[in-house]
Amino acid sequence: MADLAVSLPAGKGSIGLEASGPRGPKPRHVFSRRNIFLYGTLIVVALYYLLPLYVMVVTSLKGMPEIRLGNIFSPPLEITFDPWVKAWSSACTGLNCDGLSRGFWNSVRITVPSVVLSIAIASVNGYALANWRFKGADTFFVILIVGAFIPYQVMIYPIVIILREIGLYGSLSGLVIVHSIFGMPILTLLFRNYFTSMPEELFRAARVDGAGFWGIYFRIMLPMSLPIFVVAIILQVTGIWNDFLFGVVYTRPDTYPMTVQLNNIVNSVQGVKEYNVNMAATILTGLVPLVVYFVSGKLFVRGIAAGAVKG
């Protein structure tokens, strides 16, 4: 073996030795300049966004005497949950002093049917536009896309007139219809792009087997569309739950959603300004979208990567 290695020319011998050595990219140092810059930037950005949340949490756990000391960054010396209890059950939101509890259930009654209705209709629209070409499909799609970019403020007064004429102004049902209609364009675009990215052979095979419009939709498209449904649910829940403009315009004080009641608590000019109650009320209002996102965050990323933003 040694004689064979000696008899090889210098060039070939060096090639053989290099080929028998370690392969693959050179390992990078953990504390390289690139990693320090990358993770340092991420940490700074994370702290920038987490700092207000930290201030809100620690303030909501303090009593008013401790808050008046002025150090908003210090942790509470004595933790109290009284601000949370008051924000939920006894804070004044105008003429009523029953906290955010009534607004929470109003928001649930608004969000759940709005999300179900808008996603159900938009998924069928997107499926039809992607797989069942009909006369005027392109025109219909263009109208939907244009509708997605019309400012909400332009449509407020005409919708008030329409809801008044059909007897739904000031009711939760009227607000559900408004949210469902305004969510339709962007959701239809998402579902249409997702269904377009799916293999066309599946649709053709189902047609050959005799499946019709609804058979293909329920047996093939729906089981394969969980990621895009999660994307649609997160977008709709976040948008509808956090909505203030439609809630204050199209409902009455007894049917105000949670965001409108939060505004009434925070901007109240009567009595002592209770910052701990305000912070607790703000966190309670934002918990539902946060929980929905953290529970289904992985599926959200999958839905976006699988075609939610593809043309």
From TrEMBL:
Compartments where located: Cell membrane
First-listed, main subcellular location of the protein, grouped into a coarse class: membrane
Domain ABC transmembrane type-1: 104-296
Membrane topology: Multi-pass membrane protein
Keywords, alphabetical: Membrane, Transmembrane, Transmembrane helix, Transport
GO biological process: transmembrane transport
Transmembrane segments: 36-57, 110-128, 140-163, 175-195, 216-241, 277-295
InterPro entries named in the record: MetI-like, MetI-like_sf
GO CC, alphabetical: plasma membrane
Statement: the UniProt record of this protein carries the keyword RNA-binding: no
UniProt entry tagged with the keyword Transport: yes
Family: Belongs to the binding-protein-dependent transport system permease family.
The protein's name in its UniProt record: Binding-protein-dependent transport systems inner membrane component
UniProt organism field: Mesorhizobium prunaredense
